Amino acid sequence: MTDFFTEYLANPVRSRIFFQVQSSPNITTKTLLEKLPDIAQPTLYRHIKAMLDGGVIKITGEKQIRGVVEKSYSIGIDFNKNIEKIITENDGTGYFHLFTQYLMGTMAEFRAYSESHNIDIVNDGSSFSTTSFYATPEELQEALAKIEDIVQDISQNEPTAGRALCNLCVISIPKKIKKNEPDQNLRQYIIDLSLNHC
Questions:
Q1: Which tens digit of pLDDT belongs to each residue from 85-104?
Q2: Contact at 8 Å (CB) between 172 and 139?
Q3: Of 115, 146, 177, which residue is a domain's last?
Q4: By three-state DSSP, how is residue 76 classified?
C-alpha cells in the first residue's frame, strides 16, 4: 500500500488526477484537461495510462464524438479496504500519504473559497485553530464523540435561505512523549478544527 501512495499520490501530477477522478466519478479526459489546464495534454495522457495500467483508475465509459472516442474514468481501487489495511498494520508512511491526500482535498476547497469574489471571512464564519492538551485515549475519544454529536445534530439541517454549505474538519494528532521526559504515561494531543464556508 505504501508503494501505491509513493508511486501515485506522492507524484504531484498523478495525485491531482486522482483527486479529480475521486471528486467527480465518470469524469472525461476533456474535463480533466479543463480542470488541470497547467498540465500538458501529452503529459496528462501519459499519467492516465500509467494509472490505468496500475489499476488505480478504470475506464467506465466510452463515447464517440466526431470520430474520436472520449473515455470517462472512475477510481479503480477499493480505497476503504486499503485505508483499513494501513490502520491495521500501523503503516505510518502510508498513513502520512493518506493524510497528505486528505489535506490536498481540503486545501482545494479552501482555495476555492478564498478566491471567491464575495468572500466575507468574519460573517461567513470561516476559521481555523489549534489546541493542545493532555488526555488519556479514553478522554480523547469522549471529546471527539461530543464533537461528533454536535456535528451530527447540525448536519440534519435542511438547506434554506441564510444557510450555507460548510465543511468542518477535525484532525487529532497524538504528540509522542520523548523517552527522557519524566512521565511516560502522559499523552499530549493536538486538535485542529477548521471551518470552511463553501
A1: 888 999 888 888 778 777 87
A2: no
A3: 115
A4: coil
Which regions of the chain does DSSP assign to beta strands (E)? Answer: 27-28, 57-65, 68-75, 127-134, 166-175, 188-197
Q: With cut-offs at 50, 70 and 90, classify the pLDDT of residue 11.
A: confident
State the amino acid at position 34 in one-letter form.
E
For position 180, what pLDDT does the model report? Answer: 59
At 183 the pLDDT is 54
In terms of residue numbers, what domain contains 23? 1-115
Q: Is 76 in contact with 8 (CB distance < 8 Å)?
A: no
Q: How far apart are CA 17 and CA 51, in angstroms?
A: 9
Contacts 24+ apart (CB under 8 A), 77-83: 77/4, 79/22, 82/1, 82/4
Number of domains in the chain: 2
The strand pairing partners of 169, in sequence order, are 194
pLDDT given at position 95: 85
- According to DSSP, residue 103 is labeled H
